[in-house]
Write a sequence for this structure.
């Protein structure tokens, strides 16, 4: 199970690093007076990358809760629903 968790964490970190790079590009474009269309397109890519990372985090939490419902880090169904809806 630790290997699965490590693989999921790596995927999440890769998505977040990609979003960070895209956000850096957006900031540079705004500072440099970049084309509005290009800035908005890059910003949409950042938003999408962050959303996907969030969904991976929530889905991982859901799997962990099913596999280990008595874990101290386990979330209740209402808590998971709230997290999911926060991303929607």
């Amino acid at each position: 199970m630790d290997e699965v968790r490590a693989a999921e964490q790596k995927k999440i970190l890769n998505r977040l690093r990609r979003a960070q790079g895209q956000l850096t590009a957006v900031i540079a474009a705004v500072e440099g007076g970049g084309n509005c269309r290009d800035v908005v397109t890059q910003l949409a890519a950042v938003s999408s990358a962050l959303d996907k990372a969030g969904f991976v985090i929530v889905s991982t939490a859901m799997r962990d809760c099913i596999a280990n419902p008595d874990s101290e880090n386990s979330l209740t169904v209402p808590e998971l629903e709230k997290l999911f809806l926060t991303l929607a």
About this structure: The radius of gyration is 17 Å.
